[in-house]
Design a protein that fits this description.
single chain, 369 residues, mainly alpha, minor pseudopilin epsh fold, 18 helices, binds fe (ii) ion
Length: 369
């Protein structure tokens, strides 16, 4: 068995000031990684290393950007109210148990509602919420003030993730938060708790706009190689079954739009989303072939963009104008200026997080030939 050093679902500096980037670099980047590496290389005490990796995996995946008014929501809120009356009383008891730990250890909320401790490292299967109480977790940011450390950890707990651990009945909730985490990692939403969540129609529109833009960029010598490379990177995975941190935003957008209707319902938090998804037949193979044809070596399926427009139900008349412009063989300078302005306008309005935007900003303001 090989252990994996789990990727962080947030940026290294995103938990500041509750948890500094220096602490993340050291605690996540060196110590946690060390347990994984030593276990995989069969160095030292393998039980100790395995338990260390197990606990840090749970620990580092339960956070999000700080929010001073952060408090439990959904199933975990009911769970805490049931066992502790309210969140403040829960925090008080958690602190009392944590402060009683002698030496290195962990404190956690267990599935039976009790607050328990772990000495050094141990694998426990009943962890709902976990706080690292080893000195390396707090010393760099809080010196000896462990109470302050704990107080600031409550600001970065992602309660959706914690809700997913309180029992099987909350499985649906966990799927939802997991999908949201993916959207966040793909930079398509600002944070997992972002109220500006996309809906399914937004995702469809973003996908279409990205394709239209690639089509546009592939027509000019200043932007062609960028478009070709981006398209190739997107299609390199062959299918779009799983979310990929290393994938382009277009890759991940296709993944979200083409997910199962149930996932779509959960992710986009709307009872209509799954039904709309069931009627959406994204021409994946055609799209893949089209992306690979942007380099000009094969023939480009000119009907693909129209098929996408219909499949994704994108009815914006400006987009139609851009599409018609792209299919014309002679391009007037005045049309080109107008189309460039429109593409940039829509990208700035709708796709502020897209990995295409910086390139668009830099090239579309220049002369194209
Ligand atoms: Fe630790």
């Amino acid at each position: 068995m090989k252990l994996v050093h789990t990727k962080l679902p947030y940026d290294k500096d995103e938990l500041e000031p509750s948890k500094s980037q220096d602490t993340i670099d050291y605690h996540y980047g060196k110590l946690y990684k060390g347990y994984v590496t030593r276990f995989n290389d069969n160095e030292g005490d393998s039980d100790f290393n395995e338990a260390g990796a197990f606990l840090h995996d749970i620990y580092f995946t339960q956070f999000q950007a700080p929010d001073n008014s952060n408090k439990p929501t959904g199933p975990i809120s009911e769970f805490i109210t049931k066992h502790y009356k309210d969140f403040d009383k829960f925090k008080e008891q958690f602190e009392t148990v944590a402060m009683g730990i002698q030496g290195s250890g962990w404190v956690y909320l267990a599935k039976d509602g009790k607050i328990k401790t772990i000495t050094n490292h141990a694998i426990k299967k009943d962890i709902v919420l976990l706080v690292d109480w080893w000195e390396h977790a707090w010393a760099l940011d809080y010196q000896a003030d462990k109470k302050k450390y704990l107080e600031n950890q409550w600001k970065i707990i992602n309660w959706n993730i914690i809700s997913g651990k309180v029992g099987l009945i909350q499985e649906k909730m966990f799927v939802n938060s997991f999908f949201m985490k993916e959207l966040h990692e793909a930079r398509l939403i600002r944070s997992a708790s972002d109220i500006r969540r996309m809906n399914y129609a937004d995702a469809c529109e973003n996908l279409y706009l990205s394709v239209l833009t690639l089509d546009f960029m592939s027509r000019f010598k200043e932007t062609k190689s960028w478009a070709v490379q981006y398209a190739r990177q997107t299609a390199a995975y062959n299918n779009y079954r799983e979310f990929r941190l290393s994938g382009t935003d277009l890759y991940n957008m296709i993944h979200f739009v083409d997910a199962s209707p149930n996932e779509v319902t959960d992710a986009f938090n709307s009872k209509d989303a799954g039904r709309v998804r069931e009627q959406t037949h994204l021409p994946i193979m055609g799209l893949n072939g089209w992306l690979l044809s942007l380099d000009g070596t094969g023939s480009r399926d000119t009907g693909l963009v129209i098929r996408l427009e219909q499949a994704l139900r994108v009815y914006n008349s400006d987009y139609k104008e851009i599409r018609r412009f792209l299919s014309s063989s002679i391009i007037a300078e005045s049309d080109l200026m107008r189309i460039k302005t429109k593409i940039l306008y829509y990208f700035r309005a709708k796709m502020t997080m897209s990995d295409m935007l910086p390139t668009l900003e830099s090239v579309l303001t220049k002369q194209l030939s």
